[in-house]
Structure formats: C-alpha cells, structure tokens
Design brief:
Blueprint: H1 33-39, E1 46-50, E2 55-56, H2 61-71, E3 76-80, E4 99-102, H3 109-113, H4 139-150, E5 156-158, H5 160-164, E6 170-172, E7 177-179, H6 182-186, E8 190-192, H7 197-208, E9 222-226, E10 234-237, H8 238-241, E11 296-299, H9 303-306, H10 310-322, E12 331-336, E13 339-343, H11 352-359, E14 366-367, H12 377-382, E15 385-387, E16 389-390, H13 401-405, E17 410-411, H14 414-427, E18 434-435, E19 437-439, H15 453-458, H16 478-488, E20 495-496, H17 504-507, H18 511-520, E21 525-531, H19 535-541, H20 546-562, E22 568-575, H21 582-594, E23 603-604, H22 612-619, H23 640-650, H24 658-667, E24 685-686, E25 693-695, E26 700-701, H25 710-716
Parallel strand pairs: 1-3, 1-4, 4-5, 5-8, 10-11, 11-12, 15-19, 18-20, 21-22, 22-23
Antiparallel strand pairs: 2-14, 6-7, 8-9, 9-13, 12-13, 16-17, 24-25, 25-26
C-alpha cells in the first residue's frame, strides 16, 4: 500500500473502457427492463440501489456514480426507492453481471427519517412530493439483505455516507448502543468509504476481468472482512500509539533552524569528539531503519470491548480520526467475533483533471421521467447550483463532512465550472438567470491548501483552522474571486448567490474576498454558523471564538454600506451540544437578545455515527485529547427535557417556550431575567389565544399592542433584522 502522493495514483480516466462502451451514453440510466430494451441491453453489468429518487444531476450520488461507471464502459441500471418488503423489486432489472452497488442515498437513512428528538419526520426531501416512509431504517442493511435474497451469488458493494460512517463499530443514537461494523451486519463483500470514485473504478474493472471480490484487498478507501492478519504486516496496538496532546500549532518538521542554543541539532561530524580512556571499547549505537508505514496496521479495541466500555470507544474514535490523512494514515483493523474488519488507508484525493472528468459527464440535469410533474424538494433546492469543490479541513466535531470527504480540498477547474453554469442556463427548465450557489461543503475553501505538500502529507492535526488558522495554510482567495467575476459575466446570468456555509474565520483573512462576496453575491441575507457564543462549548465543537464573528460582521456591514445595500447576517446555532450547560445556553440567549436576533431555525445536536462529538456524547469524555478514565468529564445534555430547554433558550422570543424558561430561570437563580421590560429575557405574563394575556400569578395583563391570535404572536417572533445592533 503506497503512502499518499498523487503521482502514484492511476488517473480514473486512463482505464481501458469495458467492451459495453459501444452502446454509448444513455439519455437517462434505465430504471425498467423496457428502458433497457430501448438501449439494446440484454442485461446490466452493474445495478445501483438507492434510497433516493433518481435525479440525473452530479449533486446526487447515484447519478454521479452511475455516469462515472457508464463512462468506463459499463451498462448501469438504477433501482430507486424499491419496495423493501420482499425481493421482487430487486429483480426488476434482472441479475447484474458484476455486482449490486448499494447506498441509502445522499443522507444517512436514520438522519433522513428521524428528527434530533427521535420522532419520525413527516416528509422526505429526496422523494417525489416529499412523501415519507419511502426508505427503511438502516437502508443499506435492508437493501443488502433483499439483494442477497434476489440473487444469492451476486457480489454486494456498499458505499455512500451511511456505509462510510459505519465502517467500524459505531455508536447508534437511535438504539442508544454501539453497533457492529455495517460490513458485518450487511454481509456485504466490500465497503467503499469516502468519495469513492477512484476505488470504484478500479474495483469494477478488476471484477470485470474475473477477479473475485474476496481476493481484492489492496485498494485504498475500502473495508472488508478477513480471518487474520496476513504475514508481513507489523501490528501496532492503538493504546500504544496515542499520546496526550492539545490541538495546538504543530512544529514544522521540515524547517530545522539552527541556533546557538540548539547544539543538539548539529551533525555527528560537527560535534566535538570526546577522547576515551585507553582500553575503553565504545558502545556501538545501532539505529533502526525508519518503519515502513505502508506495512503497519493499527489494531483498534475489539467490538466487544468498545461496546461495553465508552472510554475505549472514545479512544478508538480518536485514533481513527488521527489516521485519516491519506499522506500518512495506516491500515486499521478491529476484531468482531472471529472476524477482522480491515480498513485500508483513505483514498487518494482526485486531481483537478479527475474532478472535471467526473462533473463533465452528460448529465440530463433533471429527475427521471417516471416522476412526471412531482416536486422533489432536494432537486428544487439545487437545480440552479454548482458544486465547485469537495472536502473540508474545518474538522468541526459535530459534522460528518470531514469524516466522509476528507480534509484535503479537491477543486474543479475554472473552465469546468463555467461550462456547467452555461449548461444550467441552456438546459434547465425554469432558469431565470439566478445561480443559487457556487459552493460545496463550504463556500470559501476553493483551491485552498497547505503551502507545502510535504507538511500536508505528514500532518496529523484534526483541523487546519482550529484553534487558529495554521501558518502553513494558504488562505489566498484570489482564485475564488476570479471565478465569481467570470461566472457573473456569463451572458444570461443576472445574479450569482452563495448559499453554501461560509467559513468566516477564513474569509476575514481576505478582505478583498469579503468585499466581493458582500457587494455582489448576497441576496439580502447571508447564512453563517457561529454555532455558539460560549468558549467552552466552541472548544468542544472545534469552532472559532466570537471574535472572528465580530471581525467578519464589521467587514460585512462596512462593505454593505459602501455598496448602498441593506443586508443582514443570519447566524445558526446548535442546541444541546456535548459540553453545553444550562448556563451556557442562557448566556447564548442573552447574546441573541442583546443583538436583537430572533431565530426561527434551531438545530438540536444529533449524534451521527463516527463524529468526534458523538464519541463525547456517548463517553462523556473529550477525545480531542488522550482519553483515559481520569480525563475531564464533559457535560452532556442527554435528558429530553434538558434538550428541549436548550432549544427553548435559543428561541427565547417564542411565547410557547416562556413557561419552560420561567421555571428554568427560577431554578437557576436568575428570576431577575423574568419581567416585562426590555432588560428581561422573558415576560412575566403568558399570552392567551385570544384577548387579554394571563400573567404567571393568575392576574390578567393587557399590553398596548396585543396580537389578535397566538399564531400572530408566533409570527411576530420570526427573525427580525431591521436596524441590528453592532456585535462589538
């Protein structure tokens, strides 16, 4: 297994196409036998099963993967949102010649189906007309089982975010227990994790050449089961690897500066020679050669251990995250019963040329005709947007992007992006001249990378921007500024908005970028995500302090004023995150009230598999440092009532939350915040549905301006951004 360098990766566009390339590209990948007949196919080489509606657009995983495999010469069919009650729906396209590729869809099926409070959602954005219950819980497991029932001997390849985040033993929030690797429970032959184009292309061609899936164990970005560690590998216990440490700025190992005080750095030849007494035999020092990391495997604690011991679970999570850089990551292994779950190192990131190859496929850029005029919310949201990059080096502990897409930014070329903007203009029905987004996981990491490839390959930091911007990170936004200018100059384009989340602590390093963004690409409101106001919570999130927010807000207001525009920031916050106390949420509510923010959308923390914050939630320990039984405890808001209270603090302006907040404030000794003046957080009275309002002591109170109904009271509490105060 070769340690990361792009020069060692075979380009995904360099493979000799499979013989079926002669059939050409389909207008839409087939979903029925009738469509296969029109294409002249007697069978499919690969059948992709997905929990989403099939939309032929690169923002939807099955379309991107399907078109990529089609370009490699394979005949690809799609089974979308099948009836999983029996195997008949999985036989719709016949038996695939090579394998079934299974995914839950663009989202984890449990996150898709349940709210943070474990209630079933009433809609599904990836389904026609947002119909609910079109996919099962833990869809990858169910789909795999049905495919096995349909065609027992056909290999099963699983992937996408649901499989990716469950590749080892993982805490499952919805069952409140540690579950086995999804490989074990799905009985799949192989798992592809992360953005798996490179692994998928190689795997498909090798299967097509007759290799058994069980024999293919050397592809990066894959996981599989084996009985034992093969000979030649050095096995390292994870408990011997981990070292205590904070996420501070690392020392550059490639810049050894010599000084008078650092004589230890002198070479052996330059050191003064010490004369030994006559007859003394010097001890020969034998230096061991540098270990071959490509033949090292790190053993994580067994499933049986981590399922019983939350401390070991948090330790395993920490080690997995430390072994995430393609430049230095080693293979991982974790025993499940009598079998070993083996994870090869992460995939080598795609080059710009490869990214263009993936996104320049002949996408129809619309839903499959089978859906007719049904509205698919996820499609409506992204139909006029362009994905310009992938990956995120932010490392936020609550987010799964870094775990899935990696920390190394992979960017498309300017020409490829501009071409897609023109295709939207020319092909997509309903285009009015407004591009809704040029972005990706973040709005402003396009073409940003480490200044040194050597340092990047050796780095083991969890974030490039926490606790501060790494000095080795190139924060130049000029390529993005140039892209914005060229994109909005395209004929027929009236406006380009930026809808992706902005990393504002990175943006302030480039005032020119902030000016370009604010004056040309904000449609009145700009979404940003401070996530919290309190430092002890932000440190558990690995998010910047409010100083960065203040700096960005000052720039935003300055450049808006210079352009003669009234524009406002919409901040997003997370309630009930690990490390949060009731007092932290009270302080956040007071901050929101001080600056007159009344937020309508509030996100309660959801522990997703493999996230660092999930390890905190389950263990009560902080895996950002070495985890031991003596580690500092992290407060965890697990109780349902406490989670509701934390959410209520952010929506302090909603009358429905006032009774709960009044009770909590009294218990916290902050009854001074209950009253009817501007200095109070919540009023002492409670509005009735109609007419006068009733105070907590039972007496009535009639304010000067009384909403006619409770609904109007709630509507009056929606976001207010007129004349916002300066947050300084």
């Amino acid at each position: 297994m070769e340690i990361y360098t792009n020069n060692l990766a075979k380009p995904i566009h360099s493979y000799r196409p499979y013989w079926a390339k002669r059939f050409g590209a389909a207008n839409m990948l087939p979903m029925t036998r009738a469509e296969m007949d029109v294409l002249g196919w007697d069978s499919c080489d690969i059948i992709l099963v997905t929990g989403d509606a099939y939309i032929d657009h690169p923002s939807f995983g099955m379309a991107l993967v399907g078109r990529l495999l089609e370009a490699q010469g394979f005949r690809v069919g799609i089974i979308s949102q099948p009836d999983w009650q029996n195997a008949s729906a999985f036989k719709a396209l016949g038996k695939p010649n090579l394998y079934f590729g299974i995914t839950a869809g663009n989202m984890d099926s449990m996150v898709n189906r349940y709210t943070a409070d474990k209630k079933i959602r009433s809609d599904d954005a990836y389904t026609p007309d947002a119909a609910p219950n079109k996919r099962p819980d833990r869809a990858v497991l169910v789909y795999s089982q049905r495919c096995k029932e349909a065609y027992l001997q056909t290999p099963i390849v699983i992937g996408s975010i649901e499989a990716s985040l469950r590749r080892i033993a993982h805490y499952d929030y919805w069952s409140d227990k540690v579950r086995r690797s999804i490989l074990v429970d799905s009985k799949a032959d192989i798992l592809l994790y992360g953005n798996a184009e490179r692994a998928l292309v190689e795997l498909s061609h090798r299967i097509a050449k007759g290799e058994k899936v069980s024999d293919i164990q050397d592809i990066r970005g894959t996981a599989f089961l084996r009985k034992q560690i093969p000979p030649g590998w050095d096995e390292i216990e994870s408990t011997k690897l981990d070292r205590p440490g904070t996420v501070d700025k690392p020392i550059d190992p490639y810049e050894m500066k010599m000084g008078k005080a650092d004589a230890s750095c002198a070479t052996e030849d330059s050191k003064p020679q010490i004369e030994l007494p006559v007859g003394t035999n010097p001890i020969q020092i034998i230096r061991k050669p540098k270990a071959d990391r490509s033949m090292q495997v790190v053993r994580l604690p067994d499933y049986e251990e981590v399922s019983k011991d939350p401390i070991l679970y948090a330790h395993a999570s920490r080690v997995l995250h430390l072994e995430a850089n393609p430049g230095n990551a080693r293979a991982l292994v974790q025993k499940h019963g009598d079998r070993e779950v083996w994870l090869n190192p992460p995939p080598i990131p795609l080059t710009t040329k490869e990214m263009d190859y993936v996104y320049d496929m002949p996408y129809a850029r619309k839903p499959h005709p089978v859906y007719k005029n049904a509205k698919i919310p996820a499609w409506e949201m992204i139909r006029f947007s362009v994905n310009i990059m992938r990956g995120c080096f932010g490392g936020c502990t609550f987010c799964s992007i870094t775990e899935h897409e990696g920390r190394i930014i992979q960017s498309r070329s300017e020409a490829s992006i501009l071409k897609e903007v023109e295709e939207i203009r020319d092909k997509v029905d309903g285009f009015t001249g407004i591009i809704s987004d040029l972005g990706g996981p973040t709005a402003n990491m396009y073409r940003i990378a480490c200044k040194s490839e050597k340092i990047e390959q050796s780095c083991r930091k969890l974030s490039c921007v926490y606790p501060g911007i790494c000095e080795n990170l190139n924060t130049d936004h000029s390529a993005l500024i140039q892209l914005y200018r060229k994109a909005r100059a395209i004929k027929g384009v009236k406006k380009i908005l930026i809808g992706s989340g902005l990393r504002y602590d990175l943006a302030v390093k480039s005032p020119e970028y902030v000016k370009e963004l604010v004056q040309h690409h904000v449609g009145g409101y700009l979404k940003i995500a401070p996530e919290h106001s309190e430092e002890n919570v932000l440190s558990k999130m690995m998010k910047p302090g409010m100083g960065a927010y203040d700096e960005f807000k000052a720039m935003f207001e300055k450049f808006s004023a210079e352009a003669g525009k009234k524009q406002y920031l919409i901040p997003y916050f997370i309630a009930a995150h690990p490390g949060t106390t009731d007092n932290d949420m009270l302080n956040l509510a007071l901050w929101l009230k001080k600056y007159e923010f009344r937020l309508d959308q509030v996100q309660n923390f959801t522990p997703t598999p493999m996230a660092m914050a999930t390890a905190m939630y389950h263990s009560g320990k902080n895996p950002l440092r070495k985890v031991t039984t003596d580690s500092d405890d992290v407060p965890i808001p697990k109780n349902g009532n406490q989670r509701k209270l934390h959410k209520a603090f952010i929506r302090y302006h909603d009358p429905a939350n006032w009774p709960m907040l009044r009770e909590a404030l009294k218990k916290m000794g902050r009854a001074d915040l209950i009253g009817n003046s501007k200095k109070h957080l919540v009023p002492a009275f409670q509005p009735a549905v109609m007419g006068a309002v009733r105070q907590s002591d039972g007496s009535t109170f009639k304010p000067k301006v009384l909403p006619k109904s409770f609904n109007q009271m709630k509507n009056a509490a929606r976001p207010v951004f007129s004349k916002p105060k300066k947050a300084h």
